[in-house]
Amino acid sequence: MNGNAPPVLNKPSLELGMIGNGTIAGLIDEQGAYGWLCLPRLDGKPVFNALLGGGGTFAVELEGFVRSRQYYVRNTAVLCTVLEAEDGSAVEITDFAPRFEARERTFQPMGIVRRLRPLSGTPRIKVRLDPSTGWDDKPMQVTRGVSHVRFASDTLAFRVTTDAAISYVMSGTSFLLDKPLSFICGPDETVSEGVNTLSREWEERTVNYWQNWSRRLAIPFEWQEAVIRAAITLKMCVYEETGGIIAAATSSIPEHEGSSRNWDYRYCWIRDAYFTVTALNRLSSVGTLEIYLRFLRNVVASTKGGHIQPVYGISLEQQLEEQIADALPGYRGHKPVRFGNQAAEHIQHDVYGQVILGASQAFFDTRLRNQAGIAEFRQLEQVGERAWAMHNEPDAGIWEYRTISQVHTSSALMCWAACDRLGKIAAYLGDSARADYWNERATTIRETIYDKAWNDKIKAFTGAYGGEALDASVLLMAEVGFLPKDDPRFAATVDAVDKQLRHGMHVYRYKAPDDFGTPETAFTACTFWHIDALAHIGRKEEAREIFEDLLSMRNKLGLLSEDLDPKTGQLWGNFPQTYSMVGIINSATRLSSRWAESI
User: Fold this and answer.
1) Which of 182, 213, 429, 581 is the most exposed place for a label (fewest CB within 10 A)?
2) Whole-number Å distance between alpha carbons of 527 and 475
3) What is the spatial distance between Cα 510 and Cα 599, in angstroms, rounded to a whole number?
4) Least confident segment among 145-154, 402-411, 501-510
5) 256 contact partners, CB below 8 Å, separation of at least 6
6) Chain segment 242-254, per-residue pLDDT in tens
7) How far apart are CA 35 and CA 370, in angstroms?
8) Trehalase-like N-terminal domain spans which residues (predicted)?
9) Residue 418 CB partners (closer than 8 Å, separation 6+)
10) Per residue, what are the HEC states of 400-450?
């Protein structure tokens, strides 16, 4: 409404808080400005896109501003930002995406609520409400109502209903905040009740929802705050209509400064399946687990046992054409800004094992409303046949190399896992013939990996058959049960990774040059894998030290991104990264002392 001028913000950083409700998610900076919000769902167009240098934002500017502080309401996804001025006046901003049970269903609209409250003095503020059309970063069409403003583009319309003076909001005029004000941003529909009354009620019910959800979690004795925050963040990354879980809420935050490794992560990576299911199981978050297992089963059903993509859209979209948004300057000026993801077109053989590893729990978990049986097993067998056919074939690997094709050890490992778990499921279902069939195939793949991936010269399993370069993904061998924890080859591999891929407390995916040069930042999920691997081989105190250090690298609100610069401790990569938040849950559960031993 102010010409879509660039917002007056600090230099963008990942000191951001996240709010969400399973339909949408927004990111808010330390001064209470929205830098990111996609509508009408998690993968929609970013109407607030200031994080990537665009003009779209929703900010509250306090005259004479000197400092701010930010915190979550305990055990919720309700975020509070307090702005303080040099004259002692202060404003509290409360942001949340409504979520609660109503009329026997979950109310989780395409919308957010922002509440402003004067805390002290006579604060004078300016509200900047300037949504953008998204990737082309043009101002939206604006229509004024009596108590709302309607914003529209060719593909989207929404309205902001408020008890603030519409004239002040539309003109960006400064005014005294002498009473609480509320803004309900949502579908282009009339808000029939008083906006202040409704927003207060929604806030109370949303707080109650999250606190009730959190209190049902199974958490470790140690690091409770970190695990609960990770769990809530993971929950916000679930698109609950389908059960798909996005890899991160953002697109195109580069892996390091000057990098062109800028990808759109608002999609569902199959490689995350096993670790996500493991985390949800450890949390006893059965409801979320069930809808995610349903998503995986739909992936299997839609492919009919054939090629499974590395990544799908949140509604199982297969076409994710990657495009460049030239109108956006990028995070801290780092282009390109991409939407869509070419990885959907890649050949990546580890996905077959990841799907089966993730889906296996549905056969063994009697808590589930719809426990899997023989029909689901037959569907998974088709995936297993594909894993068997591909286990010795080159692919793009778990890290989705764009021009490098080899037989990657991690892909073969997951093909083994597919056959191994099918053998276990068959045995559980009482089909000894199919159990023998799949166990025989698992044994063949295992022996091939021993023969082709072990490098006796460097005393480690390498990233690709016949190679010498290390890859942190081989740390998963013990995690998925490929090797006994006390196998000397695994301990030797952990030592090799420790020496070659670890920098300080942080682990790189690999250090060999790839399509975009040599990696400059550590991949946070790999550090968690290393922590778990150290625990597996009995180096638990060292694992705890690294885990504590990694927790200290979270932003002020307890969130982690994809990558981390070991030299500066600065967060890089898309945010918040599901893989990283899952890592907190899994490692904390593994390393924590037991409740019975601690109280």
Assistant:
1) 429
2) 10
3) 42
4) 402-411
5) 519, 520, 521, 563, 565, 572
6) 999 999 999 999 9
7) 40
8) 16-149
9) 352, 353, 355, 356, 357, 383, 384, 387, 388
10) CCCCCCECEHHHHHHHHHHHHHHHHHHHHCCCHHHHHHHHHHHHHHHHHHH
pLDDT for 1: 66
The SS3 call for residue 210 is: helix
User: Is residue 320 within 8 Å of 272, Cβ to Cβ?
Assistant: no
User: Which tens digits make up the pLDDT trace of 41-57?
Assistant: 999 999 999 999 999 99
Q: Which residues pair with 83 in a beta bridge?
A: 68, 91
pLDDT beyond 50 at 495:
yes
Measured between alpha carbons, how far is 74 from 211 in angstroms, rounded to an integer? 8
Give the torsion through C-alpha atoms of 94, 126, 250, 584, to 10 deg: -40
| Model confidence band, residue 403 (pLDDT cutoffs 50, 70, 90) | low
Place of tokens 């399973």: 22
Q: What is the pLDDT of residue 10?
A: 56
Q: What are phi and psi of 311, to 5 degrees?
A: -145, 145
- Do 137 and 146 touch, CB atoms closer than 8 A? no
485's CB contacts (< 8 A; 6+ apart) are 478, 536, 537
Say whether pLDDT at 547 is over 80: yes
Tokens describing residue 150: 């309607």
462 and 471 Cβ atoms separated by less than 8 Å: yes
Are the C-beta atoms of 301 and 274 separated by less than 8 Å?
Answer: no
Residues 548, 592: Cα–Cα separation, whole Å? 11
329-361 per-position pLDDT tens digit: 999 999 999 999 999 998 899 999 999 999 999
* Cα four-point dihedral sign 40, 41, 45, 49: positive
Percent of the chain with pLDDT over 70: 98
Residue with tokens 């978990």: 365
Determine phi and psi for 342, rounding to 5 degrees.
-65, -20
The CA distance from 208 to 84, in Å, is: 28
Q: Which two tokens mark 255?
A: 């892996």
Among 1, 35, 2, residue whose Cα is nearest residue 19:
35
| Local structure of 173: helix, strand or coil | coil
According to DSSP, the residues that pair with 129 across neighbouring strands are 58
The residue among 419 and 5 whose pLDDT is bigger is 419
Mean pLDDT of all residues in the chain?
Answer: 94
Q: Give the span between the Cα atoms of 431 and 273, in whole angstroms.
A: 26
Which single residue is written with the structure tokens 């303080």?
A: 84
- For 18, phi and psi rounded to 5 degrees? -115, 135
What is the pLDDT, as a whole number, of residue 398?
Answer: 86
Task: Provide Rg for the chain, Cα atoms.
Answer: 25
The three-class DSSP label of residue 37 is strand
Give dist(CA 56, CA 50) in Å, integer: 5
Residue with tokens 């975009």: 516
DSSP H/E element including 224: helix 224-236
